[in-house]
């Protein structure tokens, strides 16, 4: 990565050479809409996907953490991919979450996602069993060997209990189908070490780090808050790419109240995203147990933060 700086008038212009972004720069972790009775709402998913793409999303991540993947069936995951593909066509990449705590099951989901029309895969570190690093590496290698789609590794030790250590990530980067990382490790030093040693496309999964990681040469973001205000987060990377780093920083800071309300309130992002989308009249529906819906006071606060951010 190289950075050059020039001056045009009084406006500093910064050009950063980013590594290729295999799924686009601006991705959202899409919720999985359900009907009032808790069934999969495919029509709602199509309407929501169409809105997200129209508002600037270049890629949609389905069946991730925000998509409540642990409580949807294998058949529902495949149905969701097919429905969203029909809605967005080739206007956006579809990345399917396939990670589980079972290597065999993960491979099965990956093959089904490929058949259903996904463009890429997102696989979380196996959880609960807390495998050591050699087993983590073997798990991802088997998945990459068995599937035909490009694979993004999902590093979120706060949920899985197991980190993909930087040294493991560097070794896995040699596999031709392991092309990207969704980074929720909150270890910027470790991330920079992998960026320096590999060509992996790094996507932050933490909305508060969108600009920070992008400025370091990351590929973009996979955001939960971005799934509610997609145009705002797209404008952060657009401003940076245009050389207006001051505007990019201002836009990132402007999103702090909504990001904090959605991601630091003690509630999962799936809960807060669905509460806010429901208040906006967009497809969402209930969360599935064991998650519980946000209360009225929380939903009111989310709406206030949203209106402050999006006010003209």
UniProtKB/TrEMBL annotation:
Keyword Lyase annotated: yes
Composition-biased stretches (Low complexity): 1-17
One Pfam family it belongs to: DHDPS
Subunit structure: Homotetramer; dimer of dimers.
Task performed by this protein: Catalyzes the condensation of (S)-aspartate-beta-semialdehyde [(S)-ASA] and pyruvate to 4-hydroxy-tetrahydrodipicolinate (HTPA).
NCBIfam families cross-referenced by the UniProt entry: dapA
Protein name: 4-hydroxy-tetrahydrodipicolinate synthase
Name of the coding gene: dapA
């Amino acid at each position: 990565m190289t950075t050059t700086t020039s001056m045009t008038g009084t406006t500093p212009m910064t050009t950063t050479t980013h590594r290729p972004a295999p799924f686009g720069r601006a991705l959202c972790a899409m919720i999985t809409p359900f009907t009032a009775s808790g069934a999969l709402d495919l029509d709602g998913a199509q309407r929501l996907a169409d809105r997200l793409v129209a508002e600037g999303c270049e890629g949609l991540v389905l069946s991730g953490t925000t998509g409540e993947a642990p409580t949807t069936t294998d058949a529902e995951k495949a149905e969701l991919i097919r429905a969203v593909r029909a809605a967005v066509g080739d206007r956006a990449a579809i990345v399917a979450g396939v990670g589980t705590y079972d290597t065999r099951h993960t491979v099965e989901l990956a093959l089904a996602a490929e058949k259903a029309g996904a463009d890429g895969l997102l696989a979380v570190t196996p959880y609960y069993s807390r495998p050591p690093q050699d087993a983590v590496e073997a798990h991802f290698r088997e998945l990459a060997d068995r599937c035909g789609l490009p694979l993004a590794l999902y590093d979120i030790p706060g949920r899985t209990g197991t980190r993909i250590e930087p040294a493991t990530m560097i070794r896995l980067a040699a596999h031709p189908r392991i092309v990207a990382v969704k980074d929720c490790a909150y270890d910027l030093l470790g991330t920079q070490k992998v960026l320096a040693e590999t060509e992996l496309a790094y996507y932050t999964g933490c909305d508060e780090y969108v600009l920070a990681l992008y400025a370091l040469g990351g590929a973009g973001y996979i955001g939960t808050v971005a799934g509610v205000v997609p145009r705002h987060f797209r404008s952060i990377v657009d401003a940076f790419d245009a050389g207006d780093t001051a505007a990019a920083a201002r836009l990132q800071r402007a999103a702090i109240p909504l990001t904090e309300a959605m991601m630091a309130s003690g509630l999962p992002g799936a809960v807060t995203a669905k509460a806010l989308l429901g208040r906006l009249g967009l497809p969402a529906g209930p969360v599935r147990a064991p998650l519980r819906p946000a209360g009225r006071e929380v939903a009111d606060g989310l709406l206030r933060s949203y209106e402050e951010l999006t006010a003209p």
